[in-house]
Structures are given as C-alpha cells and as structure tokens.
C-alpha cells in the first residue's frame, strides 16, 4: 500500500489546482503580455505575498494575492483602448524576425497594449488595441457576433446575383459561414468597390471567399467595428478611444461613406 506523501507540491506542480497561472494573472492586470510576464517570473523579478516565484504556471486566485514586480506592487490598470489606422504592409505582431515593420513601430511605448483581433499584412484600416485582455476576449467572443465592416476593391466585378449568393450562403473549408451583408459602393468597369459586413472573423475570410469565386482582392480596408467608424485618421495615425465610444463597438453598424476613405488608384 502506497504511503501518503508528507510533501506538499511545489507551486506550479499541481496544474489541476484552482486559480490561474501567475503569468496569466499578470497579463490580466494590463501591465505586460503573458509572454513578458513569464520572462519576468523566470528571471526572479516577481514575488507573491512576499515569496519569490520562478514558475509562470504557478497557480493563484485571480484576486487576493499581493503581487510585486521588482518590489513594486502590481495593481490592475485602468482600461485603455487605442484605435489605429493600420497601413498596408505593416504586420500585426510585436516583433518580426525578418525585421519588417510592425504596428508597434507606430504605437506609444506605454502602456502595454495587445491587438484586439488582427488585420493581415496586405490589409489596412481600423485596428483596436487594449491593455485589458479580459475585455478584449469578450469583444472577440464569436457568440457576441460583433459586426465588422470592410470596403473591398476587387477585380473583376461581381454580378448582383453572384454577390447575393455569396452573401446568403458563404462556405469555407466545407463549413457554412454566417450570412454576410454585401452592397456595391461603385464600379469602374474592370474593378469594383464592395462593402462587406461580417458577423464573425474567420482567418482571411473575405479574401478566401472571393478567391473561391476567382475574384482578386486589390484593396481591403476595415472601416468600422460595430458602429465605431475609422473616421478621419490617416494610415499610421492613432487615437485613444473615449469610454463612451466602447458602447459603439457592440451596436449594429450603419452605412459608412467610402468618400471619407478615398482609395489610392491601383
């Protein structure tokens, strides 16, 4: 018969214990990312209730313990939300091993901010950042169906019937997507500008749907999230969101005039 051990498991050993990993708790305060928090912890810079912890997965209650970094107590930051007009050609990542430009080259150095969703390198437009991961995760939750509005230049133009079919029965990887809203903004003969409103955010969803219709995307610009518009920001410019504007993110989108976002000629 196996004797019960007199040893208590070290912090981080019992992965089934209640609570959250220390790196995750630190990231939720908004002072740093989870990756940076893990680096701080392994470097011995973090104490919990006066005890130095070296395991990023050591589990604690989300609230209650006193956490200090370099001897300074960490408290949850006031939520900040930043709206960036992401330019084309810029990566949505903190650093790139190839030395390419990233969105963080355009942002203030403080406070720590994480992107709320993504825009691929070739896309531009409204991109949100926040120091509140919990709030960001709620906004990204697929069950919330937060709408995102895009203006897309394509070649060749889609017929009205093709656009209607794409809007009502979109499919990717053999799985149906939620219905879209598509309307024509203008048509210049060989190219066409369309407005897409999506209720979900699958990876490169618009590009992949159009590619399946043998349609090339020339420009893709996100102009709104919910009922929050990109506004007059130029590529590379950013501003802090007012607290009352956060409510716009969950409201149904209105029509957005492409004249406010004049495209460059392709």
Explain this structure.
The structure is a single chain. This protein is an alpha+beta fold and 266 residues long. The chain contains five helices and 17 strands. Strands 7, 8, 9, 10, 13, 14, 15, 16 and 17 form a nine-stranded mixed β-sheet that branches. The protein has a four-stranded antiparallel β-sheet with strand order 3-2-5-6. Strand 15 (216-225) and strand 16 (228-229) form a beta hairpin. The longest helix is centred in the first third of the chain and has 9 residues, at 34-42. The N and C termini lie far apart (77 Å).
Topology:
Layout: E1 20-21, H1 22-28, H2 34-42, E2 46-48, E3 51-52, E4 59-60, E5 67-69, E6 72-73, E7 81-86, E8 114-116, E9 124-130, H3 133-140, E10 148-155, H4 160-168, E11 171-172, E12 175-176, E13 181-187, E14 192-198, H5 205-211, E15 216-225, E16 228-229, E17 238-240
Parallel strand pairs: 9-15
Antiparallel strand pairs: 1-4, 2-3, 2-5, 5-6, 7-9, 7-17, 8-9, 10-14, 10-15, 11-12, 13-14, 15-16
Helix pairs in contact: 1-2
């Amino acid at each position: 018969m196996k004797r019960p051990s007199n040893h208590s498991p070290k912090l981080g050993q019992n992965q089934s214990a209640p609570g959250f990993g220390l790196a995750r708790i630190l990231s939720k305060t908004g002072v740093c990312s989870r990756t940076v928090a893990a680096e701080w912890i392994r470097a011995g810079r973090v104490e919990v209730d006066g005890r130095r912890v070296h395991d990023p997965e050591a589990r604690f209650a989300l609230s209650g313990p006193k956490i200090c970094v370099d001897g300074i107590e960490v408290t949850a930051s006031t939520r900040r939300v930043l709206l960036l007009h992401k330019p084309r050609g810029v990566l949505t990542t903190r650093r790139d091993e190839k030395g390419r430009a990233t969105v963080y080259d355009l942002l203030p150095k403080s406070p720590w901010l994480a992107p709320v969703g993504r825009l691929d390198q070739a896309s531009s437009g409204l991109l949100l950042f926040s120091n509140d991961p919990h709030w960001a995760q709620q906004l990204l939750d697929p069950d919330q169906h937060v709408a995102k509005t895009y203006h897309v230049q394509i070649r060749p133009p889609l017929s009205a019937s093709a656009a209607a079919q794409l809007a009502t029965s979109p499919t990717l990887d053999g799985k149906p997507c939620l219905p879209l809203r598509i309307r024509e903004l203008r048509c210049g003969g060989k190219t066409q500008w369309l407005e897409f409103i999506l209720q979900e955010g699958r990876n490169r969803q618009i590009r992949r749907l159009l590619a399946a219709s043998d349609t090339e995307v020339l420009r893709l610009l996100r102009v709104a999230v919910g009922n929050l518009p990109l506004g007059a920001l130029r590529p590379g410019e950013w501003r802090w969101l007012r607290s009352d504007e956060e409510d716009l993110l969950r409201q149904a989108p209105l029509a957005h005039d492409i004249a406010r976002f004049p495209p460059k000629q392709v």
